[in-house]
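ok so for the tutorial part 2 we go from a plain amino acid sequence to predicted structure tokens. step 1 is just haveing the sequence, like this:
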Amino acid sequence: MPIFVQLFALFCSEYMNTKGSDRREYQRDYREKNRGKRQRISISLTQEEYRQLEKQAGNLKLATFVKMLALSSLPGAQKPLDEEVVEALRAHTMEIRRIGNNLNQIARQSNSFVDIDRNAVFHHLRQMEDRVARFVRDQAES
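step 2 — the prediction. this is what the tokens look like for a chain of 142 residues:
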């Protein structure tokens, strides 16, 4: 068994077997160490307000979403992105990764051959360029 699996199992067993007093002591020490570093606020909402915030939060925890909203209203703060923008960025990121993967495959393939006919490669590239130009022209006309 790999050492990291053994260490993780040991950590989990130690953590799970701690007595309540050890856990309370740890929590007390943690609170004392971090006292004054964080402040907590509390708000009251109607049921309708709560449901609206929950709906708008989507997959985020409600507390995280409310914190983001509050911090985004501060001067100079970055505004949260719309879900449509986030989805578009994810799609574009995946497309860029696919293109990068294709480029890596082309590079690997080209490095595996010693004797390459450069004229043939340029001829094929020219044909591909012509096809793309023809496709774009046909799309523009239709």
